[in-house]
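Lab notebook, entry 227. We have the chain sequence and a SMILES string for zinc ion, and the next step in the workflow is to get a structural model of the bound complex before anyone spends time on docking refinements. Request logged below.

Task: model protein plus zinc ion, output structure tokens.
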Amino acid sequence: MSAEWFFKLKEFDSLGKMRINHLKVIQEQEQRLTKLNIRRQEQLDEANGLKSELLSVQQNYFEAEKKMNTCEEQASRLKAVGGDEAKIASFQKEATNLEDSLFALLERTEAIHLELEDKKTFLAGLEKTYQEIETEVNEEIQENQKGVSQADLRMKLILEELPSGFRETLERTLKKNLAVGSFTRIDNGSCFFCRYKISRTDESEIDMQQMLKVCPQCSRIFLPYGS
Ligand SMILES: [Zn+2]
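Result returned:
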């Protein structure tokens, strides 16, 4: 009697769905870590940006300071030899401007240091969260991988148990890798999935006589009503 084989096909179908759910959970869990990694990388990139800005600010400070000293030296040398007043004033003005820029650079340096300190605290927190979540994620993944292997094993056994006609039909359908599984039912005289119209004869053969048939359009295997 084919009822028993349809019962196995139904089990095969639900195992396949369970397997997909396990894989989905695994993927979701992996994405949790991926997301955190992206956030961590963003923070690290920003920190690196700040560090290179800090270097250039420090370089600018060093150069401005040197220029300011030179201006001051020029001004006092000119003064000592009784040089041109306008020239002296111009050197002094430039020295003052450079001093203002030094203050601005110093302020920026301090701000960068503070931002870097914040980043460090944030990254340390993120690291802690990451480790906690990683443990959780790994446990979930392991558990679901076990579910996948168990389903795989059971599906393999079912395939081996099936009589050749059922097995060959199932293997042919599996090769097509159909979305949402390899099985369908008759729903209001049509294939539940692709809505292909099924003849009365086919419907009776599938649902009443439990004959093995595939949908002519989407090639999914019909599970008889009540199986
Ligand atoms: Zn169909």
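Notes for the group: The longest helix spans residues 3-80. Worth checking against the assay data. Residues 20-153 form a domain with the Helix Hairpins fold (CATH 1.10.287.1700).
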